[in-house]
């Protein structure tokens, strides 16, 4: 699914109106019908609806919603903010229609605003501003927002919480943004919905398909996508009747150090549960028995060192290599890592301590072969690129790093972002907060290594790996619950995740 900018969303409305023989006011009526339906599904008529409408088409939506729900016998109260004396045409039409419906509980605010009391059973419908917001809210609008936010009422925002920008909120004023419990987003999600720091203003969000032109959406240029199950299903390579293990690659996992053998174990299990033909784990001697007894499917190659990775492995005969889970950062490991990476000629995944080592030796970053996959969580990324003040800035800098190194970056978290060297970002919809547990990332490294070894492209391995890893997390969460689930449960749920994905239509 594409994520378009607010400017493009407005262009999409205009294109639909021009090319699909629908009048702007009728498109708004369609949106309002869906908005009213979604609101009535959540809130029954015992709730008073207090509608705050702004001067543009977001306000127009809100007024139409007010009329529809008033006619369904909801108790409704409307405040229209007409501060400058300029209202959009559709806003004006909907004021008229509201009045014609016999609605009387209408207040037009032009300067002084005497706010209504808002109780905990009231529902505020926020239609102050939508995709037309040009700058942070200030003055009277900021005061209204702060009043609503301070009240105990439930808040439903139309399209986007008023005051929130669709993309970059670096220079926004946070206290002047509506805090919604529910955001009913028209047609497409906004990029800013996917950023952690906006979760408390966006609340839960739901998309409403108002029938914006497919043609426009398909031809619109964007660098942001949300991955869909059907796309991932289509990537999975079918297995032929006469398939043999030599066709599914041989991967090398370089992982584990003294006290962190578990990371190697988790990554190995996940790798084997994702379809690889053969797996060899290169690990210090201290982890030899642990791996042999717990993942008998894997071959173990002992490092020269007892306790840490100390000597680069020979890469002949492997299709892909992953380095990092539980690696440690011993001086001897640093040298071995640089040797390994500098001479790497097969697809490479760098995770965890491998990334931490590079963050201490940033000059060496350019030794990472083009197209390698880096899988940092936020902290690991910021150790490399420096601290960021918000998610938009972090994403922008991650894109710069991906372009500079010509690498893929898998920025992990909720909505994990797969960033390609040419700056396209795919956000992953699967996964849950139960995955915020030790070793989840090691499991992901194993899955990606498995896919690369099987001949999936770098981009496919990242996107499919992240998707199925999140799906396994969701299955583990269903079985064990968000608190009790462990990363071992995620690895164990991988077979069910693969099966479920393959059965997706
Ligand atoms: N037919 C249509 O065009 C449709 C429009 N839709 C709705 O229309 C919305 C977009 O409508 P608009 O483009 O009219 O934009 P908005 O309703 O978001 O706001 C535009 C108005 O706000 C003013 N404004 C912008 N920033 C401000 C600020 N910081 N302080 C004070 N005033 C400010 C602008 O000067 C303009 O008058 C969408 O979010 C969606 O809710 C939907 O109903 C779909 C159909
Ligand atoms: N709230 C969340 N929602 C979805 N996925 C999450 C969430 N928290 C963590 N994850 C996923 O869990 C994994 C955690 O990886 P990482 O932080 O590297 O863990 P570790 O270092 O313990 O192995 C990532 O794939 C991340 O996307
Ligand atoms: K709004």
From TrEMBL:
Residues annotated as binding AMP: 412-416, 441
UniProt GO molecular function: ADP-dependent NAD(P)H-hydrate dehydratase activity; ATP binding; metal ion binding; NAD(P)HX epimerase activity
Biological process per Gene Ontology, one example term: nicotinamide nucleotide metabolic process
TM region positions: 247-267
SUPFAM superfamilies: Ribokinase-like, YjeF N-terminal domain-like
Ranges where the YjeF N-terminal domain occurs: 9-218
Cofactor entry: K(+); Mg(2+)
Enzymatic reactions: (6R)-NADPHX = (6S)-NADPHX; (6S)-NADPHX + ADP = AMP + phosphate + NADPH + H(+); (6R)-NADHX = (6S)-NADHX; (6S)-NADHX + ADP = AMP + phosphate + NADH + H(+)
Pfam families linked: Carb_kinase, YjeF_N
E.C. number(s) listed in UniProt: 4.2.1.136, 5.1.99.6
InterPro entries per record: Carbohydrate_kinase_pred_CS (IPR017953), CARKD (IPR000631), Nnr (IPR030677), Ribokinase-like (IPR029056), YjeF_N_dom (IPR004443), YjeF_N_dom_sf (IPR036652)
Binding site for K(+): 58, 126, 162
Domain YjeF C-terminal positions: 228-501
Cofactor remark from the record: Binds 1 potassium ion per subunit.
Keywords (A to Z) from UniProt: ATP-binding, Isomerase, Lyase, Membrane, Metal-binding, Multifunctional enzyme, NAD, NADP, Nucleotide-binding, Potassium, Transmembrane, Transmembrane helix
Residues the entry annotates as binding (6S)-NADPHX: 57-61, 130-136, 159, 263, 326, 377, 442
PANTHER family on file: ATP-DEPENDENT (S)-NAD(P)H-HYDRATE DEHYDRATASE, ATP-DEPENDENT (S)-NAD(P)H-HYDRATE DEHYDRATASE FAMILY MEMBER
The family this protein is said to belong to: Belongs to the NnrE/AIBP family. Belongs to the NnrD/CARKD family.
Function: Catalyzes the dehydration of the S-form of NAD(P)HX at the expense of ADP, which is converted to AMP. Together with NAD(P)HX epimerase, which catalyzes the epimerization of the S- and R-forms, the enzyme allows the repair of both epimers of NAD(P)HX, a damaged form of NAD(P)H that is a result of enzymatic or heat-dependent hydration.
NCBIfam families: yjeF_cterm, yjeF_nterm
Subunit (UniProt): Homotetramer.
Protein's recorded name: Bifunctional NAD(P)H-hydrate repair enzyme
Species whose genome carries this gene: Phocaeicola plebeius
Name of the encoding gene: nnrE
